[in-house]
């Protein structure tokens, strides 16, 4: 498979894109590289992708009720597929409850 950085570099519109645009594009590329031809992931694939690609945000969350609720929902009805939009909602949910978010908030942004 082609590395994400190389895929990003091939998208001309991102040449002068902002950091946020590039971050979003990288997220979309990671998702679509794992998705089936219809652009969807099984719930098991979604769970695996989150645990391998978003571990910094998930780490330490395993005992939180909201984390358990989300993971349980991915273990139910395994035949259902996840769309990109739903995947992004999961990412935001994990981000908001993450201990890493608190660390990110405390990073100094001025010189």
Automatic annotation (TrEMBL):
Domain S100/CaBP-9k-type calcium binding subdomain: 20-59
Top-level taxonomic group: Eukaryota
SUPFAM superfamilies: EF-hand
Protein name, as recorded: SNTAN protein
Native source organism of the sequence: Chloroceryle aenea
Gene name of the encoded protein: Sntn
């Amino acid at each position: 498979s082609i590395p994400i950085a190389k895929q990003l570099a091939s998208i001309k519109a991102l040449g002068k894109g902002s950091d946020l645009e590039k971050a979003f594009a990288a997220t979309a590329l990671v998702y679509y590289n794992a998705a089936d031809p219809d652009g969807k992931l099984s719930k098991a694939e979604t769970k695996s992708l989150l645990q391998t690609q978003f571990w910094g945000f998930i780490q330490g969350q395993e005992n939180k009720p909201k984390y358990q609720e989300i993971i349980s929902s991915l273990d139910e009805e395994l035949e259902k597929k996840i769309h990109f939009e739903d995947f992004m909602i999961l990412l935001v949910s994990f981000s908001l409850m993450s201990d890493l978010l608190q660390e990110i908030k405390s990073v100094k942004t001025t010189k």
